[in-house]
Input
Amino acid sequence: MANTDKDITLTFNVNKDEELDLILNEVSFDLLTNSNFSINPRSEEMMPMPFVTNDAIIISKKLKI
Output
């Protein structure tokens, strides 16, 4: 979800006899400014790879429900 100021609510049905593995990904685009890391920014000659998530922190959680 692109808007950080809104919540999202998901509603779905699952058969009670089946397991559900839910994978949640959180992406924040503050890798270069986050105080937990010390990463040098790209030089003028460098270009980010197109069509992939660049300069981001990605947190992935797998939930078994």
Notes: The chain has a mean pLDDT of 86. The two ends are 22 Å apart (CA to CA). Strands lie at 21-28, 57-64.
